[in-house]
Amino acid sequence: MYESNITSTVCVITNNRPKVLKSCLIAISNQIIKPNDVIIIDSSDDLIYNSFVKIDFPDYKYFYEKHELGSQPILRNIALSKCTTDIICFIDDDAFPHENWLQIIIKAFMEFDNIGSLGGRIIQGTTLYPKSHKDALSLTGKYNLFKWAYGSYNVVYPNSINIDALQGTNMCFKTNLLKSIGGFDAKLAHGYASFEDTDVCLTLKRMKFDTLYIPDAVVVHGLEPRAKGYSRDLGIDYNFTYSYARNGSLVHLKNSKIKFLGILILFSIVLLINAVRIFLPIVNNKRLVDICNKNRINSFKYFLKGIIDGTKLYFQ
Q: 44-47: long-range contacts at Cβ-Cβ below 8 A with a sequence spacing of 24 or more?
């Protein structure tokens, strides 16, 4: 066991999911190295949802903050404002960290000086096993103009990987550094708050800090159904389609080195690529095909409107 003077806070944002929240908090309490603080920000419809927290986890800091669905950046910033430790770690309420998760995170912060953000493996979907560092780089936490945020976070590799962006299910920061950039962008509190995690990582990378993926810092993602049953399927859910395009455009323009050219490219290449990639899916489910065919034109309009509004928002 190594000695560390680094203090840590684990933050959980929750909404109407008491069963998985309890499992998440149990997993946090079972950490080999205990966090100095655990902060729970609850935006559930009613306080009764998570009344067990104060009884079963009396040492954890619980705050009820009712906000609309998609207010993740605002809720994260509330947690950040209450954090007094050296590092702050965010996990979802349906994410269950392995017992050495925090131990590995603290060790990484001790070993690497230039960390802006740090995250680990999220067990969900297909597990990838790259054979080289180059392959690992190409698979993990990518961001570019054409696809925006993409890549896997379920990548098994023996070394840390310097990536573009993390997923909010498993991400950590130096607290004072995150506070110095104003935390998460509240403008992205829309829809499902798409790219709010991507944005803060890209902001720190522009400041020449590293974003590290540590494969051994593992959480299992429960993938609970989304609140109120809302779909996250582009091309079917108009609200999500609009929000995805709105936030994606804003994040790109904030972090692009080529602002005005970036706008032109957004209205051409990205629009066309996403139109083909998202709205003309090749699937075997006939019902889904019928829905996509019926909604395709309207979805495309919402996607275009999202890009326009995201661009306007950038210039406000």
A: 44/14, 44/15, 44/16, 44/18, 45/16
Sign of CA dihedral 91, 94, 95, 96: positive
Tell me the whole-structure pTM to 2 decimals: 0.87
Q: Are 181 and 205 in contact (CB under 8 A)?
A: no
CATH class of 8-224: alpha beta
Partners of 162 in beta bridges: 212
Cα separation values, 276 from 69, 212, 242, 300, Å:
29, 32, 16, 10
pLDDT in tens, 162-189: 999 999 999 999 999 999 999 999 999 9
The predicted-structure confidence for 38-83, as pLDDT tens digits, reads as follows: 999 999 888 777 789 989 999 999 999 998 888 999 999 999 999 9
Query: For the segment 239-290, what is each residue's pLDDT rounded down to a tens digit?
Result: 888 888 899 989 988 987 665 555 655 555 555 555 555 555 544 445 444 5
Indicate the domain borders of the chain: 8-224, 231-315
Cα angle at 102 between 98 and 105, to 5 degrees? 115
Report whether 149 contacts 142 (CB < 8 A): yes
Instruction: Express each pLDDT in 4-42 by its tens digit.
Output: 789 999 999 998 889 999 999 999 999 999 999 999 999
